[in-house]
Design goal:
The complex is a heterodimer of chains A (763) and B (177).
Chain A (H helix, E strand, L loop, with lengths): L10 H14 L3 H14 L4 H13 L3 H14 L4 H13 L3 H13 L6 H12 L3 H14 L4 H13 L3 H15 L8 H17 L3 H10 L7 H14 L3 H14 L4 H11 L6 H14 L5 H9 L5 H17 L4 H5 L6 H17 L6 H17 L3 H14 L4 H13 L3 H14 L4 H13 L3 H8 L13 H6 L3 H25 L4 H34 L1 H10 L2 H12 L5 H26 L2 H29 L11 H8 L1 H18 L4 H13 L3 H15 L7 H16 L5 H14 L7 H7 L3
Helix pairs in contact in A: 1-2, 1-3, 2-3, 3-4, 3-5, 4-5, 5-6, 6-7, 7-8, 8-9, 9-10, 10-11, 11-12, 12-13, 13-14, 14-15, 16-17, 17-18, 18-20, 20-21, 21-22, 21-23, 22-23, 23-24, 24-25, 25-26, 25-28, 28-29, 28-32, 29-32, 29-33, 29-34, 32-35, 35-36, 36-37, 37-38, 37-39, 38-39, 38-40
Chain B lengths: L5 E5 L5 H11 L6 H9 L3 E8 L2 E11 L8 H5 L2 H4 L7 E9 L8 H15 L4 E7 L3 H9 L3 E7 L13 E7 L1
Parallel strand pairs in B: 4-5
Antiparallel strand pairs in B: 1-2, 2-3, 3-4, 5-7, 6-7
The chains are: A mainly alpha (763), B alpha+beta (177).
Chain lengths: 763, 177
């Protein structure tokens, strides 16, 4: 870095630099020793404090580290070394926004260390600060123009700012520079960069130019599949149907199992809206080219109407072939056509006719699979008795087939008997203990039957169980098995509500009810804890992208990188996450109501409550230990029952801030879920943030009633918000007016009175 | 179906449940759980599952015994006592169970299992196979005769008494291989 040794006015500074060198060489203990000497003389030496924080972090004293960093920043917030160290610290603890601030400060305060720019760019990507990212990438490129990755990175930053032209011209520039120097090992990266550029050009809407570029660079593109797919798509968009159809035929040759190629080919040939007979001819032809491919056989079933004689013939051909071959997925394959109930009944008649007339001519497994098919059919149309009848026949015939047990358990589950369903699933599991699929199914059904611990034991047969762990819970968290975490959380929630209901029955005073409440408390804590572990997993998903900001530039996989960034931006709309939040927030609301009630209760009963609480804690010890032994994911877990977390939530601020951050996150990323706006509405209404509640109400009504059919539920909620504002004495008059105006503009019927609104919103 | 329709595979600790269910639905007799556990534990046990187009449909289990030991009842035949006398000289293989799901009979599944156990017998340098059949089980009696077994004159009285079968006597069948 610095060639000649600088001369420092203070010995502390010199010492600190030396310690820094040691720190960089990972000699943390030695560095710490030097720094401690410094701090003995000068307690507020900022650089030393910062270094001490970082060394402490590296040496594993993580809880002490931040304090030193904060003190260092207090004493030297304009010292770029201190800034840099603070940035490093916050990056290590994965607090990216804070890290970005201090890296930026290091640059602004005059650090000449160019790698800081690179690190800052990564942090800006992580925090989606695209505006500043561009400048940072530009500066770094100027310092290191010899690497293609830096040019690509700059182009990506332009792209993310939606400055497509700048992105394309950056990529053009480096292409021109590097052309002469390309070697064989660079060619794949080059090909990816070219495709990336073309995809940006396409994004600007200039399809003709994209096609031109694609054809010009054809020889340089290694990813031939993408090349062909892009080319076909461009041609289609440009109206060059004939040429496009040729490319789609080429693509079909490569992969005749890709259904979308057939559909695109039809668009290119202009047959999509033709009579079924004409389209059928095309598919028959294609089927003769690719006799083993599935799409040319199944796609005609989608456009042939149920009444068409060919439909029955084709469907019979398709379904019966699979039944005779013993394909377990026969029903699942044909199920897409069940959205048309005419087609469903034709399909049923096909299988029934076969079942009645021909089944005896085939080997016994065909009989089983036909029964299996019919049972699935009746389950789908919700005639559970018939479904049960068929599956029992199959089971009697071949009681050794695992699939039959799975289906029977499903049917029984639909009839509402979760316990019996889990027994059946367990019986199926006993047939083949090394079948992971049935193991997972059995686990899930045990969860549904509220046998949470049995379920964990069951799934633990397939996890890596450390010697000191009671079961595979720890491994399930490491493996990010969200479904088990969510199912167990939901199981504990149900147990919690069960216990609450039981306690109510027993009456508040009885001895027994305290015991019941103990259990309820434990289940509540466990449910919260499991839900929070899903939150943690998603935090990991979010943090995991950090490495890819640099990695993808280096290896040149920019197209996939952009995809990943887009995916991460919608990460929290993943269904399993939203499901977890649904359960989690419901419990949090429960805690909140409990808190509100205890506040409004009179002092006398408060005393009583306190006493009760004390009692609970006492009994808990024994019970707690008992439960703990079974649920503890690892002995290192400090809060195995989630009681600590639960008590933290009882201090209302934590609960509210948690709820608020979830509401904000979902509003931003999962706006197309009804649940998001349900949650937001309830939260803001409770928090008396009526304007935000109004916004949530409007978003909600758009999802709940997309065709604006004026549903009664919408009308009711409008009135609910109106009366909430009216009854709230503390509300600011201006705010009340804004809300009223907002409601009237969104729901004009309201301006003529509540009754008028309800008479319109009556559906 | 291109693959051979009937195939065999070992009984393992993981598919014992399958073995058990085949016996339960096919045979009027009940085997204790310990018997199933022993079938994968003891070296003197030989057992095999049969599959019909990949569905498990049949199972066989036999063990090495000395023919001079009397087997007065089904319970003795399936008890661990028979296995613990490891020092005895084995001179025969005794078939404890042979079952094929009713829907899959007459398709060569049982024959394949029998062929397999004959091979196993020879590999263990034993040349006699023996078994008991319930006197009312006409289907099995015919089948074993067809396969070359000789019915012995002796009838074991009350062999299946504790299993509560009507007419609880049993015939002994033997074959030299």
């Amino acid at each position: 870095m610095v060639a000649r040794k600088p001369i420092f006015a203070h010995k502390e500074d010199a010492n600190a630099r030396e310690a820094l060198t040691l720190y960089e060489a990972k000699q943390y203990k030695k560095a710490l020793k030097l720094v401690d000497q410094n701090l003995k003389k000068n307690l507020s030496h900022a650089e030393s404090l910062a270094l001490k924080g970082c060394c402490n972090y590296q040496l594993g004293h993580k809880s002490e580290a931040e304090n030193y960093i904060l003190r260092a920043l207090k004493n030297g917030s304009t010292n770029y070394l201190v800034n840099h160290l603070a940035g490093i610290y916050y990056r290590n603890v994965e607090n990216y926004p804070e890290a970005a601030i201090w890296y930026k400060a290091a640059v602004d305060n005059g650090s000449h260390n160019t790698p800081i720019l690179r690190d800052l760019a990564l942090l800006q990507l992580q925090t989606r600060d695209y505006k500043n990212l561009r400048e940072c990438r530009q500066k770094y490129l100027e310092s290191q123009p010899g690497f293609r990755a830096n040019w690509t990175a700059l182009a990506v930053s332009h792209h993310l700012n939606k400055d497509f032209d700048a992105a394309v011209s950056t990529l053009d520039k480096i292409e021109g520079i590097i052309k002469e120097h390309l070697q064989e090992q660079d060619m794949y990266e080059h090909s990816e960069c070219v495709l990336y550029k073309i995809s940006i050009i396409f994004e600007t809407g200039n399809v003709a130019r994209a096609l031109e570029e694609l054809e010009a660079k054809s020889d340089e593109i290694r990813d031939r599949l993408s090349f062909l797919e892009m080319k076909a798509n461009f041609l289609l968009l440009l109206g060059k149907q004939k040429e496009a159809s040729l490319i789609y035929r080429q693509l079909l040759q490569r992969n005749p199992d890709q259904a979308s190629y057939y559909q695109s080919l039809e668009i290119a040939l202009g047959t999509s809206n033709e009579a079924p007979e004409i389209r059928l001819k095309l598919y028959d032809k294609l089927s003769s080219f690719y006799p083993r491919a599935d799409p040319p056989k199944i796609l005609p079933l989608s456009f042939l109407p149920a009444s068409h004689p060919e439909f029955k013939k084709r469907a019979a051909d398709y379904v019966l072939t699979q039944l005779k071959r013993g394909v377990p997925a026969a029903f699942v394959n044909i199920k897409p056509f069940y959205n048309d109930h005419h087609k469903a009944s034709v399909i049923l008649s096909i299988v029934q006719e076969f079942f009645e007339n021909e089944i005896n001519n085939f080997p016994p497994p065909v009989f089983v699979w036909a029964n299996y098919f019919l049972a699935q059919h009746y389950l789908y149309v919700n005639q559970l008795d018939k479904a049960l009848c068929y599956i029992d026949t199959a089971l009697e015939h071949t009681p050794t087939l695992v699939e039959l047990y799975i289906l029977k358990a499903r049917i029984v589950k639909h009839s509402g008997d979760f316990i019996e369903a889990s027994h059946i699933m367990q019986k199926g599991r006993s047939l083949d203990l090394q079948d992971r699929f049935i193991n997972s199914k059995a686990t899930k059904y045990l969860f549904r039957a509220n046998k949470v611990e049995e379920a964990i034991d069951c799934v633990s047969l397939f996890t890596k169980n450390d010697d000191d762990a009671a079961n595979g819970l720890g491994d399930l968290q490491v493996m990010q098995s969200n479904w088990t975490l969510v199912e167990s959380a939901e199981g504990y929630s149900r147990l919690y509500y069960e216990q609450c209901a039981l306690a109510k029955q027993e009456g508040i005073e009885s001895e027994k009810s305290t015991e019941t409440m103990d259990l309820a408390e434990i289940y509540l804590g466990l449910a919260l804890k499991r839900f929070m572990s899903v939150l943690k997993v998603f935090q990991v998903y979010e943090n995991d992208q950090f490495d890819y900001h640099s990695y993808c530039m280096r290896v040149g996989t920019t197209r996939d990188y952009i995809e990943m960034v887009k995916w991460e931006d919608k990460l929290h709309s993943t269904p399993i996450y939203v499901r977890a939040i649904r359960g989690f927030t419901k419990l949090l609301q429960e805690v909140r109501v409990e808190l509100l009630n205890s506040e409004t209760d009179e002092t006398v009963s408060k005393e009583k409550k306190k006493r009760n609480v004390k009692k609970i804690k006492q009994i808990n010890v024994k019970k707690k230990n008992e439960v703990m032994a079974r649920v503890q994911p690892s002995p290192k877990d400090e809060d195995p029952l989630g009681q600590k977390a639960l008590n933290e939530f009882r201090e209302a601020n934590k609960l509210l801030s948690q709820l608020e951050s979830l509401v904000k996150q979902l509003s931003l990323e999962a706006a197309n879920y009804l649940f998001t706006w349900d949650l937001a509405y309830d939260f803001y209404k409770h928090e008396k943030k009526y304007v935000l509640a109004l916004q949530a109400l409007r978003s909600w009504s758009k999802i709940v009633d997309p065709q604006n059919k004026k549903l009664r539920v919408v009308g009711n909620r409008v009135l609910d918000l109106q009366s909430a504002v009216e009854q709230d004495g503390s509300v600011n008059v201006a705010i009340a007016k804004v809300v009223q105006k907002g409601l009237e503009s969104a729901f004009p019927e309201l301006s003529e009175g509540q009754e008028n609104l309800l008479s319109v919103y009556s559906h | 179906m291109t693959r051979s329709t009937v195939a065999l595979d070992d009984v393992t600790v993981n598919n014992l449940g399958t073995f058990k269910i085949i016996n339960e639905v096919c045979l009027p007799t009940t085997y204790p759980d310990s018997w199933y556990e022993n079938s994968v534990k003891l070296p003197s046990e030989v057992s095999q599952l049969a599959f019909y187009s990949e569905l498990p449909v049949g199972a066989i289990q036999g063990k090495l015994i000395n023919l001079s030991h009397k087997i007065p009842s089904f319970e003795v035949a399936t008890s661990i006592l028979m296995n613990t006398k490891l020092k005895i000289v084995h001179d025969a293989l005794y078939i404890e169970s042979l079952a094929v799901l009713p829907a899959y009979r007459g398709k060569g599944v049982g024959s394949k299992l029998l062929e397999w156990i004959i091979e196993q017998t020879k590999e263990r340098f034993v040349h006699e196979i023996a078994l008991h059949v319930h006197v009312d089980n006409k289907e099995a009696i015919e089948w074993y005769k067809k396969k070359g077994f000789q019915q012995q004159e002796e009838v074991v009285k009350d062999y299946y008494k504790q299993q509560e079968l009507p007419n609880p006597d049993a015939y002994i069948f033997k074959m030299t291989v």
